[in-house]
C-alpha cells in the first residue's frame, strides 16, 4: 500500500463490539479474538491515527431496516444496550471519539473528514458485512484502502474468504495485505 503523499495513513477498526465478538451473540465471529490481537498490533503502529467505528441499531424502521430488525429481533434493542459497547481493550486503541453509524458501511463524509482523506488500513468485524461494505464504498469514492485480512473477523471462514476475494478484485483502490505488511506501512508514515 502506498501512502498518499499529503498525509500518513490511518487505521480504521470497524465495529469491535460485544454483539460481533461474543460467542453468545448470534452475530459473534468465532475469529474475533485472534483478529483483535492483530487490530491491537496495527493500532500500536498507527501512532494515534486510529479511528474506531460502532454500528448502532438506529436505522429508520419505515425503511428496509424495519425488515432487517424483523429478521434479527435479538438485535432490535436500544442503542445504549451493552451489546453495542466496545469490547474490553478497544477504547484504549484510539484517542478519537468513535464514529457511530446505523449503517453497515462506515465510509462517508464523517470518516473522510476524520482521516483527512488519507489512505486507510481497514480491520474489524465482520469481514463479510461491515468491512466489505466500508471498503467497497471507499473504493468507489476513490479512497486508497488496504484491508488487513488477518485483522478482520468473518461470520465464518468461508464467508471471510469470499469477502476477501471480492475485495481483492478492486485494485488499485483496494489492496489486501497481512498485519505485518500493514504495520510497516503505518510505522513508515
TrEMBL record:
Tree of life domain: Bacteria
Gene3D superfamilies to which the protein is assigned, alphabetical: Isochorismatase-like
InterPro entries (alphabetical): Isochorismatase-like_dom, Isochorismatase-like_hydrls, Isochorismatase-like_sf
Residue ranges of every copy of the Isochorismatase-like domain listed in the record: 10-168
Coiled-coil regions, chain positions: none
Listed Pfam families: Isochorismatase
A molecular function (GO) term: hydrolase activity
Keywords attached to this entry: Hydrolase
PANTHER family recorded: PEROXYUREIDOACRYLATE/UREIDOACRYLATE AMIDOHYDROLASE-RELATED
Protein name: Nicotinamidase
